[in-house]
Amino acid sequence: MKKITLLISLAVFSLIPTNTFSQHSIAREWNEQLLDAIRSDFARPTVHARNLFHSASLMYDAWAIFDNTAQTVFLGRTFGGFNIPFNGITTPTDVAAARHEIISYAMFRLLNYRFANSPNATTTLNELEDFFTNDLGYDETFTSTDYGTGSYAALGNYMAGKMIEFGNQDKSNDQNDYANLNYSPSNDPLVLELYEDNTDINPNRWQPLAFDVFIGQGGNVFPLNTPDFLSPEWGEVTPFSLKVDDLTIYNDPGYDCYVYNDPGPPVYIQNSNEDGIDDPYKWHFALVAAWSSHLDPSDNTMIDISPGSIGNFDSSNFPETFAEYQAFYDFFNGGDASSGHLLNPHTNAPYVPQMVKRADYARVLAEFWADGPDSETPPGHWFSIMNYVSDHPLVVKKLNGQGPTLSDLEWDVKCYLALGGAMHDSAVDTWGVKGFYDYIRPISAIRYMAGKGQSSDASLPNYDPHGLPLIPGYIELIETGDPLAGDSDENVGKIKVYAWKGPDYIADPTTDIAGVDWILGERWWPYQRATFVTPPFAGYVSGHSTFSRAASEVLTLLTGDEFFPGGMGTFDIQQNNFLVFEPGPSQDMTLQWATYRDASDQTSLSRIWGGIHPPIDDIRGRIIGEKIGVEAYDKALTYFNGETLNNPVFNETETVSLYPIPFKNELNISLNSIQASKIDIYNISGKLILSKIISSNTQTLDMSSIASGMYFAKISASNNDIIEVKKVIKK
């Protein structure tokens, strides 16, 4: 396993065995156990974002039980329609010891359940057992859930059991290893090894990839060589802070697709004549191909990667129109329109320039932000960054930089809840979008267009409205005498691209560098391992962009400072001791970020250089992530501040009944101890079609004005909090 060391300012923090973390809170120690388990599992961002959130909620609740202000999230509440009864427990004489015990039993039971089918389950479960029994001294044979006896271990077991029950009904299909229920791909798989004609696909839809051997981003061999789309129905999973008002339910594929914060469709390929680079679809994917030309360390182009030159872009100016996208991304040189920071606010001095080869920078970004090969997935990566920030000596553990200094445990559980909620909501939102729009990846789009020909000039050979645009020096036609023409000129007239040559040119990853040259466009590769190539799910929108932007907002709000401690976060990269599938970088270098948002934006660019996403996937993911990060933090604050205590929605005895189902012209609503004020009826497209005031606990609503079909009823309290959402059908 590669040891990763993150440098924040001048302090060094390494991923070391968790049993040496004696100075850390029990929540931090269990979070490290979870991150280790994730690294040994399949790289499933959706699944692990959920694991991080559920774990964070358990640990937070174990802390909040004995706090006079805070309110629990799950325990003693109804969350997502699932009730978790709690009759209370005697306040301990040693609160810290009780919290330690509850957290440990809850986490041990939950993680044993969640990782029982991991590809490295034996190792993971043994490590969890060793930590629980030997390091912490707890008894794994104690399985009672009868906390009425005053046992804090039993309460931990009870909480884990209830979280497992919740997870078995939260629409994740946990009990069936998260298998897809309805989705099927529109396109046949692309068989990577054969370089077959790929022009007989729908160029707007996702295409599976077929491998001799598929090794996921976490380094684990998948049992199938054509991996399924990961989590296309994840939009249905119970979220943390996502709002029903931001939900649209589509039925276009023949089953319900839940899409929060719908970004609208991506760019689709045009059929107009000679549009070439003026077709937004072709521009977006051609940019990915053009940035692939930056990946050769023999290219001596130097760039300044210090915060003085990159970062600091105002998100209110993110591009929306095609012209704005063209202005934001540097098509030929790489990078974006950010201008950097004038001064480090901690030192009040300019950031020192750091000149490195562009090729080294681009290759390192593609690998670093891919979170591999020992992948903790993007949500886990940001938890690691949160942990390192928490360890920094300049960090004062005050929520939003204000109020009292928190203990390590209180700081950790609150940070984990806010960040875990944001990561989970990002997965629910992003994969709902991915599942519905089902958008193509660059590996398929570029090979498809190259196979079609060129779309710039009908007077030139191999013209097709769906072809790649001709760009001198980047995308050209093969002519007689060209090294790619073939022995019998069989490739004359085909498309060539100036790009990274791909894994065919790497026999020994410790010595061979593929480099950049002219290659057949039909053989274009992302800058990834040949056994991985591209994640097994649709591109639009980028999960990395959404996760990272949401996390950067949460870290900014938690610390009360947009800047990393000391004004800069860094990560040291050693020459020829970082890249996985070819040597590199060719020189020592240090990744540097002034702010959390700068790190997030760098993540987004890394996926373009890595050949994973076009810009259209990136920006809309950033926008969604920014919204989610703020909303998740605000939601967490309501629990921290006990603001939900007076909200009758969460009383475990409350119920809402709508009957009969299906109904004809009348729908009855019956409330039990709920102060509801309104019922809104939405059609399956998410459009509000009827809104009624609720004037009594039992009321008959006239529904004769709506057509037959399936609808969703949202019942709201007088303060606009959502009490329940139910599916109803009119005959």
- Name the strands of the widest sheet in spatial order: 2-1-14-15
Main sheet properties: 4 strands, antiparallel
Shape: globular
Radius of gyration: 27 Å
Distance between the termini: 59 Å
Strand segment tally: 22
Helix content: 25-40%
The overall average pLDDT, rounded, is 91
SS summary, helix count? 14
Which topology of the domain at 650-730 does CATH recognise? Immunoglobulin-like
Low-confidence blocks of residues:
1-22, 645-654
Beta-strand content bin: 5-15%
Query: According to CATH, what is the class of the domain at 650-730?
Result: Mainly Beta
Which architecture of the domain at 650-730 does the CATH hierarchy give at level 2?
Sandwich
- Give the structural class: alpha+beta
Give me a quick take on this structure.
The protein is an alpha+beta fold and 731 residues long. The chain has helices spanning 26-39, 45-64, 95-114, 121-135, 152-167, 280-291, 322-328, 358-368, 377-391, 408-437, 442-452, 543-559, 596-609, 615-640; strands spanning 5-8, 11-14, 78-79, 82-83, 190-191, 209-210, 247-250, 257-260, 302-304, 355-357, 475-477, 495-500, 516-520, 569-573, 589-593, 655-659, 666-672, 676-683, 688-693, 698-702, 709-717, 722-730.
